[in-house]
Structures are given as C-alpha cells and as structure tokens.
C-alpha cells in the first residue's frame, strides 16, 4: 500500500470498533465509565465527609458545632460551583451542537 491509498487512523479505528463484538455502543460505554465513576466517587466522598462532620452537631460543645457547620458550608459552596460548571458545559455543548 502506498501513501496515497492509506486510510486515516480515525477511519481504521472506526472500522475496528465497528467490527468489534460490542460495536460502537459498547465502545462508547467503556469510554464513558471513567468519568462516570469519578463523579460517583466525588459524590460518595462528599456524603461520607458530611456524615462524619454531622456526628458532632448534637454535642454540647459550641466549637464542634461551629466547625461542623463551617465544613458543611464549604461543601455547599463546592457543590454549587460544580453544578454551575456542569450547567455551563451543558449550555456550551447545546450551543455548539446547534451550529453543526
């Protein structure tokens, strides 16, 4: 095969993926697993830290309650920032798909 008849790498990858037993949908599913698992691990970590800090809210010491509510407020700010970032990317994605 000379240089003029070679297929681009993207076409070769598409042909290999299409002929795979899982097909394009299976390949897309495997490629989407790492980001999905990352999001779920962040959610689980946030829930566990929040549950750990809420243990001291019912105590009599005012310093424990203050530090607990400070940590919870920090997590709320991080959650709102992450939600706004995801919303921004969703708007950008929709806007770019309309231009295609």
UniProtKB/TrEMBL annotation:
The chain crosses the membrane at residues 36-54, 66-93. Keywords: Membrane, Transmembrane, Transmembrane helix. This is Uncharacterized protein. It comes from Grifola frondosa.
